[in-house]
Design goal:
CATH class: Alpha Beta
CATH superfamily: Alpha/Beta hydrolase fold, catalytic domain
CATH architecture: 3-Layer(aba) Sandwich
Strand order of the largest sheet: 1-2-4-3-5-6-7-10-9-8-13
CATH topology: Rossmann fold
Number of helices: 11
Largest sheet: 11 strands, mixed
Radius of gyration: 20 Å
Helix content: 25-40%
Shape: globular
Order of helices and strands: HEEEHHEHEHEHHEHEEEEEHEHH
Number of domains: 1
Strand content: 15-25%
Length: 386
């Protein structure tokens, strides 16, 4: 059991951090999508449709992290520039401060984390509108997200698996991780999880779907102090079981300095992959320079020499021929002194808590003095309660 003192200390630290600047004032390339449905989650919708979009093109759904906006995340990740290059449409659901003061998707709120309800339903309605408006190939719809957006990606893949051909979770959490504020903090630390098979059962129980299931790419920094790296292993175990890959040996290599594992089915089709970025903190891995540079570095958009955007697109089959440095056997890969120095120099960024109380939930009535006051003050500052 997580000690109250540990939770209070973490909350107090968060309360003293000060609100992180947002990137809402960044110039963007996105347009508004309106009238897409009942929108029970009260989300905004932004889109990017390249001039060269053809009928039957793919759609990629991109979910930002806490303190971020759709335009800011697009600017950092480079998804719209890749869309110009490869000819696919983009949908960027965006949180509103009226739902969440820190612009986090409400990933642990039960009303927002189930099929046919809340934010999950809003995102599904947006996808339907994009398919109808742009003649999207419904067999090639994909979703990715960072942090709270990664946790919401887990939710969408579990609750609407028939919609997606693939997903990518960056510094996120597995579906069914938490249904309350205390659980959210514990799971972010990697604590208190049920057995892996229970996590897999949560996905199976989230819809009537029985396969085929979306392929999945998982990304995690080894030095992430906001979402413990063990969360990535939970996601992997959850989807190994879903794909029938439990006990299957992964193919291991190193791609552009990052440890890489891939799990294939009996026919040799890659269904699950995982990247671990040495020395990286909390954020989206980027490679902004060179001929294949993509995106721009900034808070939680981290220049680490590998473009998650491009590699995710390749894993989904949106472009061909993954490039970069490959080492045949990751177990024999040893960081040289030069490589270690580069990894150690990477900044470790910290993000505010991923979870907030849904706008529909009532105030808990915590005390106004003592330990209760500290908790209440920190929860309000972090956006975890109104």
């Amino acid at each position: 059991m997580v000690r109250l003192s540990s939770t209070v200390a973490r909350l107090t630290k968060l309360a003293n951090m000060g609100r992180l600047p947002t990137d809402s004032d960044l110039p963007g390339r996105l347009a508004d999508l309106v009238g897409f449905g009942a929108n029970p989650g009260a989300l905004l919708a932004r889109t990017y449709v390249p001039a060269n979009l053809k009928a039957g093109a793919p759609l990629v759904v991109v979910l930002h992290g806490c303190t971020q906006t759709a335009s800011g995340y697009d600017h950092g990740s480079g998804w719209s520039h890749l869309a110009d290059e490869l000819g696919f449409a983009l949908l960027f659901p965006q949180q509103q401060r009226s739902n969440n003061p820190n612009l986090c998707f409400n990933w642990f709120s039960p009303v927002d984390a189930r099929r046919g309800s809340g934010e999950a339903m809003s995102i599904r309605q947006m996808i339907g509108a994009m398919v109808a408006a742009h003649d999207i190939d419904e067999r090639r719809i994909f979703i990715t997200g960072l942090s709270a957006g990664g946790a919401m990606t887990s939710i969408m893949l579990a609750t609407y698996p028939e919609v997606f051909a693939g997903g990518a979770i960056i510094a996120g959490l597995p579906f069914g991780a938490a249904t309350s504020v205390p659980e959210a903090f514990s799971r972010m630390r990697g604590e208190g999880y049920p057995a892996n098979m229970q996590l897999a059962d949560a996905v199976r129980d989230a819809s009537q779907h029985r396969g085929p299931w979306p392929r999945l790419s998982v990304w995690q920094g080894s030095a992430d102090q906001t979402v413990a790296a063990s969360n990535a292993e939970r996601i992997i175990a959850q989807w190994q079981a879903i794909h029938g890959l439990s006990g299957v040996e992964a193919r291991r290599d190193v791609v552009e300095g990052s440890r890489h594992r891939v799990w294939h089915d009996a026919a040799g089709t890659p269904l699950l992959e995982a990247y671990e970025i040495p020395g990286m903190g909390h954020g989206t891995p980027l490679r902004t320079g060179g001929p294949e540079g993509c995106g721009a570095s900034g808070p939680f958009m981290l220049e680490v020499g590998i473009s998650s955007t491009r590699h995710i697109a390749r894993f989904w089959g949106l472009c061909e021929h993954a490039v970069g440095e490959h080492v045949a056997d990751a177990d024999s890969f040893i960081l040289s002194p030069q490589r270690t120095a580069v990894a150690d120099a990477r900044p470790v960024h910290h993000l505010e808590p991923l979870g907030v109380v849904s706008s529909s939930e009532k105030r808990t009535g915590l005390p106004t003095s003592g330990v209760g006051a500290i908790i209440e003050k920190a929860l309000r500052h972090a956006g975890l309660m109104r």
